[in-house]
Design a protein that fits this description.
Elements lengths: L2 H31 L2 E2 L2 E2 L7 E4 L2 H6 L10 E4 L3 E2 L9 E14 L18 H9 L9 E14 L6 E17 L2 E12 L5 E18 L3 H9 L15 E11 L16 E10 L8 E6 L3
Parallel strand pairs: 5-11, 9-11
Antiparallel strand pairs: 1-2, 3-4, 6-10, 7-8, 8-9, 9-10, 11-12, 12-13
């Protein structure tokens, strides 16, 4: 073959290759523009399932006749419990005053030899709270726990050693049988019942009437749309809801003095969805949806 003919055929092959690549890229961009993802396509509805293509498929340009293995990733939130009854209205409250203070010493993360047991800690907390106005009548014991510093084996994922740090007692404000998120008390103890911290963020509430609220089902729809009263940084994809209840949320300003009450604030009715992400969360995390209609 003559040299000129060979150059001509090389130019033809290059042109054909560029044309094929151009068609392939055009197809991919067309699919992305029309809401299609490899493995699923939806133009009228939100994508509920996405697929991850193994990196080796792209890097090696290996598209066999059977196509690459696809791994489904759930973008939905699953509810594992029945939704509670939904009243048309709930009691409405305003915040009359707020008390905020903390005696934090900054030593709670230190390692200790002996910390109070879960059984004895609430009694110790009630005693120390007498010096801070006593335990409010609308306070409910929410949690008592011992906190440890843990040493993990990165290969096995198992805890090899743990040393005590502190014991914490937490109270939550309840009104009309419902929790008030953002209003609580925490007391922490170290060695031999040594007081490490008393933190109080407590609202005095006043009933002002009734307020219309959305149903739990409507609130779950807002949750699916990620419409939260308090947005969170992590993804909710794959979350499982393990408990649902109605409640309230107060958002208050920090007062100028540790014992000074802040100006009146709103108390917002909410639906609380306690959720976990399997394989990552140990305890359910509260997700708040504004229930005001």
């Amino acid at each position: 073959m003559k040299h000129t003919d060979r150059r001509l055929w090389e130019k033809i092959l290059i042109a054909v290759s560029c044309f094929i690549i151009f068609l392939g890229l055009g197809f991919l961009f067309w699919g992305a523009w029309n809401g299609c993802v490899i493995g699923t396509c939806s133009s009228d509805h939100g994508i509920t399932n996405m697929y991850v293509i193994p990196a080796g498929v792209w890097n090696g340009f290996s598209f066999g006749t059977g196509g690459p293995d696809i791994i489904p990733m759930s973008t939905t939130i699953t509810i594992d419990v029945p939704l509670p009854p939904s009243p048309a209205t709930v009691p409405d409250y305003r915040v009359v005053s707020v008390q905020k203070f903390s005696t934090r010493t900054g030593t709670s993360l230190a390692v200790r030899d002996h910390i109070p047991s879960v059984a004895e800690a609430p009694g110790l907390a009630e005693q120390v709270l007498e010096d801070y106005g006593g335990l409010p009548a609308d306070a409910v014991l929410e949690r008592t726990e011992q906190v440890f510093m843990k040493k993990y084996n990165l290969k096995t994922g198992m805890v090899e050693e743990q040393v005590p740090q502190y014991t914490r007692v937490a109270y939550r404000q309840f009104v009309n049988g419902s929790p008030v998120m953002g209003s609580g008390i925490e007391v922490s103890y170290g060695d031999g019942g040594e007081l490490l911290d008393v933190s109080k963020d407590w609202s005095t509430l006043e009933y002002i009437g009734e307020i219309p609220v959305i149903s739990a089902d409507e609130a779950f729809g807002k949750l699916q749309n990620r419409d939260l009263l308090k947005p969170i940084q992590s993804s909710l994809n794959g979350y499982h809801i393990t408990r649902v209840q109605s409640g309230y949320h107060v958002k208050t300003r920090i007062p100028g003095s540790p014992m000074q009450a802040s100006p009146p604030e709103r108390c917002t009715p909410v639906w609380i969805f306690y959720g976990i992400k399997p394989g990552t969360d140990v305890e359910p995390f509260p997700l708040l949806v504004n229930a005001t209609r």
